[in-house]
Amino acid sequence: MLYLFNSAGHPYRASGPSLFELGPAEPVAFDNTVNGGRWIEAVWRTDDGVLYGWYHHEPAGLCPGTTLTAPKIGAVRSEDKGATWVDLGFVLEARPGTLRCDAKNGFCAGGHGDFCVFLDPEQRYLYFLFGNYAGDVEEQGVAVARMEWGRRDAPVGHVWKWCQGERTEPGVGGRVTPVFGALSAWEREDCDAFWGPSVHWNTYLQQYVMLLNRARGAGWIQEGIYVSFSADLADPRSWSQPLKVLDGGAWYPQVMGLDDGLKGTDKLAGRRARFFMGGVSEYEIEFSH
Q: What angle do CA 198, 82, 52 make, to 5 degrees?
Protein backbone atom coordinates (compact mmCIF):
# COMPACT_ATOMS: atom_id res chain seq x y z
CA MET A 1 0.00 0.00 0.00
CA LEU A 2 1.26 3.46 -0.93
CA TYR A 3 0.62 6.38 1.42
CA LEU A 4 0.98 9.86 -0.01
CA PHE A 5 1.01 13.14 1.91
CA ASN A 6 0.05 16.55 0.57
CA SER A 7 -0.33 19.79 2.48
CA ALA A 8 -2.25 23.03 2.00
CA GLY A 9 -1.70 24.79 5.30
CA HIS A 10 -2.56 21.43 6.91
CA PRO A 11 -1.39 17.94 5.87
CA TYR A 12 -3.61 15.37 4.15
CA ARG A 13 -3.03 11.67 3.54
CA ALA A 14 -4.19 9.52 0.63
CA SER A 15 -3.57 5.81 0.11
CA GLY A 16 -3.92 3.18 -2.57
CA PRO A 17 -2.16 0.29 -4.31
CA SER A 18 -0.20 2.65 -6.58
CA LEU A 19 0.38 6.28 -7.49
CA PHE A 20 -2.36 5.95 -10.11
CA GLU A 21 -4.91 4.33 -7.77
CA LEU A 22 -5.13 6.61 -4.76
CA GLY A 23 -8.24 7.14 -2.67
CA PRO A 24 -9.48 10.50 -1.38
CA ALA A 25 -7.13 12.61 0.72
CA GLU A 26 -8.13 12.92 4.37
CA PRO A 27 -6.78 15.42 6.92
CA VAL A 28 -4.31 14.04 9.44
CA ALA A 29 -4.49 14.85 13.16
CA PHE A 30 -1.85 16.23 15.54
CA ASP A 31 -1.60 16.04 19.31
CA ASN A 32 -1.18 19.82 19.50
CA THR A 33 -2.01 23.07 17.73
CA VAL A 34 0.33 25.69 16.30
CA ASN A 35 -0.10 29.36 15.47
CA GLY A 36 -0.11 29.24 11.69
CA GLY A 37 0.08 26.71 8.87
CA ARG A 38 1.87 23.38 8.98
CA TRP A 39 3.03 21.40 5.92
CA ILE A 40 4.50 17.88 6.25
CA GLU A 41 7.23 18.01 3.62
CA ALA A 42 9.18 14.82 4.38
CA VAL A 43 8.63 11.42 6.00
CA TRP A 44 10.79 8.37 6.68
CA ARG A 45 9.51 4.93 7.70
CA THR A 46 11.55 2.64 9.94
CA ASP A 47 11.70 -1.13 9.54
CA ASP A 48 9.34 -1.58 12.51
CA GLY A 49 6.67 0.57 10.84
CA VAL A 50 7.08 3.79 12.82
CA LEU A 51 6.76 6.83 10.57
CA TYR A 52 8.77 9.97 11.25
CA GLY A 53 7.85 13.24 9.62
CA TRP A 54 9.13 16.80 9.42
CA TYR A 55 7.01 19.85 8.78
CA HIS A 56 7.39 23.40 7.54
CA HIS A 57 5.62 25.78 9.93
CA GLU A 58 4.70 29.37 9.05
CA PRO A 59 4.02 31.31 12.26
CA ALA A 60 1.28 33.92 11.99
CA GLY A 61 1.49 37.52 13.17
CA LEU A 62 5.26 37.98 13.09
CA CYS A 63 5.07 41.16 11.02
CA PRO A 64 1.75 42.89 11.81
CA GLY A 65 0.08 44.52 8.84
CA THR A 66 1.79 42.18 6.38
CA THR A 67 1.48 38.58 5.18
CA LEU A 68 5.16 37.93 5.86
CA THR A 69 6.27 34.97 7.94
CA ALA A 70 9.53 33.26 8.93
CA PRO A 71 9.18 29.48 8.66
CA LYS A 72 10.79 26.92 10.91
CA ILE A 73 11.03 23.14 10.76
CA GLY A 74 9.51 20.72 13.26
CA ALA A 75 9.53 16.95 13.76
CA VAL A 76 6.63 14.53 14.31
CA ARG A 77 6.12 10.79 14.89
CA SER A 78 3.29 8.43 13.93
CA GLU A 79 2.50 4.81 14.78
CA ASP A 80 -0.58 4.53 12.52
CA LYS A 81 0.93 5.21 9.09
CA GLY A 82 0.54 8.95 9.37
CA ALA A 83 -3.14 9.24 10.32
CA THR A 84 -2.20 10.84 13.67
CA TRP A 85 1.02 12.50 14.74
CA VAL A 86 2.85 13.34 17.98
CA ASP A 87 4.79 16.61 17.75
CA LEU A 88 8.44 16.26 18.80
CA GLY A 89 9.32 19.97 18.65
CA PHE A 90 11.18 22.38 16.41
CA VAL A 91 14.59 21.29 15.17
CA LEU A 92 15.63 24.01 12.69
CA GLU A 93 15.17 27.74 13.19
CA ALA A 94 17.00 30.84 11.94
CA ARG A 95 19.32 32.67 14.27
CA PRO A 96 17.85 35.43 16.49
CA GLY A 97 17.77 39.01 15.27
CA THR A 98 17.36 38.16 11.58
CA LEU A 99 13.64 38.90 11.10
CA ARG A 100 13.17 41.46 8.30
CA CYS A 101 9.62 42.79 8.36
CA ASP A 102 10.67 45.21 5.60
CA ALA A 103 11.31 42.29 3.22
CA LYS A 104 9.91 42.84 -0.26
CA ASN A 105 9.84 39.29 -1.66
CA GLY A 106 6.17 38.89 -0.72
CA PHE A 107 6.37 35.82 1.52
CA CYS A 108 9.29 35.47 3.95
CA ALA A 109 10.87 37.86 6.42
CA GLY A 110 13.45 35.22 7.32
CA GLY A 111 13.42 31.68 8.63
CA HIS A 112 14.21 28.15 7.43
CA GLY A 113 11.86 25.99 5.37
CA ASP A 114 10.92 24.35 2.05
CA PHE A 115 13.11 21.32 2.68
CA CYS A 116 13.67 17.61 2.22
CA VAL A 117 15.37 14.93 4.32
CA PHE A 118 17.42 11.84 3.48
CA LEU A 119 18.76 9.02 5.64
CA ASP A 120 22.24 7.81 4.73
CA PRO A 121 22.72 4.15 3.66
CA GLU A 122 24.31 3.23 7.00
CA GLN A 123 21.31 4.70 8.86
CA ARG A 124 23.67 6.76 10.94
CA TYR A 125 22.68 10.31 9.97
CA LEU A 126 19.56 12.01 8.70
CA TYR A 127 20.36 14.94 6.42
CA PHE A 128 18.22 18.06 6.00
CA LEU A 129 18.50 20.23 2.88
CA PHE A 130 16.52 23.42 3.37
CA GLY A 131 16.03 26.99 2.29
CA ASN A 132 17.60 29.66 4.50
CA TYR A 133 15.83 32.99 4.02
CA ALA A 134 17.49 34.75 6.97
CA GLY A 135 20.67 36.58 7.88
CA ASP A 136 23.28 38.18 5.66
CA VAL A 137 23.12 37.41 1.95
CA GLU A 138 26.24 35.25 2.36
CA GLU A 139 24.21 32.93 4.61
CA GLN A 140 21.11 32.73 2.42
CA GLY A 141 20.34 29.95 -0.04
CA VAL A 142 20.11 26.17 0.18
CA ALA A 143 21.72 24.93 3.40
CA VAL A 144 22.44 21.56 5.03
CA ALA A 145 22.10 20.10 8.52
CA ARG A 146 22.18 16.61 9.96
CA MET A 147 21.06 14.61 12.99
CA GLU A 148 22.18 11.28 14.39
CA TRP A 149 19.37 8.91 13.42
CA GLY A 150 19.40 7.43 16.92
CA ARG A 151 18.17 10.81 18.23
CA ARG A 152 14.97 10.74 16.15
CA ASP A 153 12.58 10.27 19.10
CA ALA A 154 13.97 13.28 20.96
CA PRO A 155 15.45 15.40 18.15
CA VAL A 156 15.37 18.90 19.66
CA GLY A 157 18.92 20.09 20.24
CA HIS A 158 20.44 17.26 18.23
CA VAL A 159 20.37 18.74 14.72
CA TRP A 160 23.59 20.47 13.64
CA LYS A 161 24.02 22.88 10.75
CA TRP A 162 26.91 22.87 8.32
CA CYS A 163 28.84 26.15 8.53
CA GLN A 164 32.31 26.95 7.18
CA GLY A 165 33.11 23.28 6.69
CA GLU A 166 32.06 22.20 10.20
CA ARG A 167 28.90 20.85 11.82
CA THR A 168 29.09 22.76 15.07
CA GLU A 169 26.22 25.24 14.68
CA PRO A 170 22.98 24.29 16.48
CA GLY A 171 19.87 23.59 14.46
CA VAL A 172 17.91 26.15 16.46
CA GLY A 173 19.58 29.54 16.17
CA GLY A 174 22.88 28.58 14.54
CA ARG A 175 24.55 30.03 11.46
CA VAL A 176 24.88 28.27 8.10
CA THR A 177 27.07 28.27 5.02
CA PRO A 178 24.83 27.63 2.00
CA VAL A 179 25.57 24.94 -0.54
CA PHE A 180 24.03 27.17 -3.19
CA GLY A 181 24.16 30.79 -2.09
CA ALA A 182 21.64 33.50 -2.96
CA LEU A 183 22.65 35.73 -5.85
CA SER A 184 20.52 38.58 -4.51
CA ALA A 185 19.21 38.67 -0.93
CA TRP A 186 15.78 37.26 -0.16
CA GLU A 187 14.60 40.47 1.48
CA ARG A 188 15.13 42.44 -1.75
CA GLU A 189 12.47 43.04 -4.37
CA ASP A 190 14.91 41.67 -6.95
CA CYS A 191 15.72 38.53 -4.92
CA ASP A 192 17.45 35.75 -6.86
CA ALA A 193 18.07 32.39 -5.20
CA PHE A 194 17.62 28.63 -5.36
CA TRP A 195 15.14 27.09 -2.94
CA GLY A 196 12.89 24.09 -2.29
CA PRO A 197 15.37 21.21 -2.76
CA SER A 198 13.98 17.72 -3.38
CA VAL A 199 16.51 14.87 -3.20
CA HIS A 200 16.22 11.25 -4.31
CA TRP A 201 18.66 8.37 -4.80
CA ASN A 202 18.77 7.44 -8.47
CA THR A 203 19.50 3.74 -9.01
CA TYR A 204 20.31 4.27 -12.69
CA LEU A 205 22.80 7.09 -12.13
CA GLN A 206 24.03 5.70 -8.79
CA GLN A 207 23.95 9.25 -7.47
CA TYR A 208 21.80 11.52 -5.39
CA VAL A 209 19.74 13.91 -7.50
CA MET A 210 18.51 17.28 -6.25
CA LEU A 211 15.77 19.22 -8.03
CA LEU A 212 15.54 22.93 -7.22
CA ASN A 213 13.42 26.00 -7.84
CA ARG A 214 15.02 29.30 -8.70
CA ALA A 215 13.11 32.44 -7.70
CA ARG A 216 13.88 35.77 -9.30
CA GLY A 217 11.90 38.80 -8.15
CA ALA A 218 9.09 39.68 -5.74
CA GLY A 219 6.39 37.05 -5.53
CA TRP A 220 9.08 34.39 -5.97
CA ILE A 221 8.73 34.49 -9.74
CA GLN A 222 9.73 31.06 -11.04
CA GLU A 223 12.80 31.57 -13.23
CA GLY A 224 13.26 27.84 -13.80
CA ILE A 225 13.83 24.36 -12.43
CA TYR A 226 17.36 23.06 -11.96
CA VAL A 227 19.12 19.79 -11.16
CA SER A 228 22.28 18.97 -9.19
CA PHE A 229 24.09 15.68 -8.51
CA SER A 230 26.17 14.22 -5.69
CA ALA A 231 27.64 10.83 -4.82
CA ASP A 232 28.13 11.68 -1.13
CA LEU A 233 25.45 13.07 1.18
CA ALA A 234 28.07 13.63 3.87
CA ASP A 235 29.96 16.20 1.78
CA PRO A 236 27.89 19.33 1.08
CA ARG A 237 30.62 20.54 -1.29
CA SER A 238 30.09 17.51 -3.54
CA TRP A 239 26.87 18.84 -5.10
CA SER A 240 27.40 19.84 -8.73
CA GLN A 241 26.62 23.30 -10.03
CA PRO A 242 22.87 23.37 -10.79
CA LEU A 243 21.89 22.92 -14.44
CA LYS A 244 18.61 24.20 -15.81
CA VAL A 245 16.01 21.55 -16.65
CA LEU A 246 13.36 23.92 -17.94
CA ASP A 247 12.40 27.59 -18.01
CA GLY A 248 9.64 28.75 -15.72
CA GLY A 249 7.56 25.84 -14.51
CA ALA A 250 5.85 25.65 -11.14
CA TRP A 251 7.13 25.44 -7.57
CA TYR A 252 8.17 22.23 -5.83
CA PRO A 253 9.69 19.96 -8.48
CA GLN A 254 10.04 16.33 -7.42
CA VAL A 255 9.89 12.80 -8.80
CA MET A 256 8.18 9.50 -8.04
CA GLY A 257 10.05 6.39 -9.16
CA LEU A 258 8.39 4.18 -11.79
CA ASP A 259 10.89 1.55 -12.96
CA ASP A 260 9.71 -2.07 -12.96
CA GLY A 261 10.68 -3.92 -9.79
CA LEU A 262 11.47 -0.68 -7.97
CA LYS A 263 9.18 0.45 -5.17
CA GLY A 264 9.61 4.03 -6.23
CA THR A 265 8.92 6.97 -3.95
CA ASP A 266 9.90 10.62 -3.86
CA LYS A 267 13.25 9.39 -2.46
CA LEU A 268 13.94 6.47 -4.80
CA ALA A 269 13.81 6.45 -8.60
CA GLY A 270 15.55 4.92 -11.59
CA ARG A 271 16.05 5.96 -15.17
CA ARG A 272 12.39 6.91 -15.60
CA ALA A 273 10.12 8.68 -13.11
CA ARG A 274 6.99 10.77 -12.87
CA PHE A 275 7.91 14.45 -12.74
CA PHE A 276 5.84 16.66 -10.44
CA MET A 277 5.53 20.42 -10.13
CA GLY A 278 3.19 21.96 -7.60
CA GLY A 279 1.90 18.51 -6.69
CA VAL A 280 0.78 17.80 -10.27
CA SER A 281 2.43 15.40 -12.73
CA GLU A 282 1.86 15.90 -16.46
CA TYR A 283 5.20 14.48 -17.61
CA GLU A 284 7.73 11.76 -17.06
CA ILE A 285 11.41 12.56 -16.65
CA GLU A 286 14.21 10.35 -17.99
CA PHE A 287 17.75 10.47 -16.64
CA SER A 288 20.80 9.67 -18.75
CA HIS A 289 24.54 9.46 -18.18
A: 55
Q: What is the pLDDT of residues 44-85, one digit of tens each?
A: 999 999 999 999 999 999 999 999 999 999 999 999 999 999
CA 219 to CA 186: how far, in whole Å? 11
Radius of gyration of the chain (CA): 18
Buried/exposed code over 140-177 (b: 16+ C-beta within 10 A; e: otherwise) = bbbbbbbbebeebeebeeebbbbbeeebebbbbebbbb
DSSP-assigned letters across all residues of 55-105: EEEEESSSSTTS--B--EEEEEEESSTTSEEEEEEEEEBPPTT---TT--S
Read off the amino acid at residue 14: A
Give the residue from 96, 185, 195 showing the smallest Cα distance to 142: 195
- CATH fold, domain 2-286, is Tachylectin-2; Chain A (2.115.10)
Q: Answer whether 30's CB lies under 8 Å from 38's CB.
A: yes
173: left (phi over 0), alpha (psi -120 to 50) or beta: left
C-beta separation of 242 from 209 below 8 A: no
* CA atoms within 13 A of residue 238's CA, in its CB half-sphere: 10
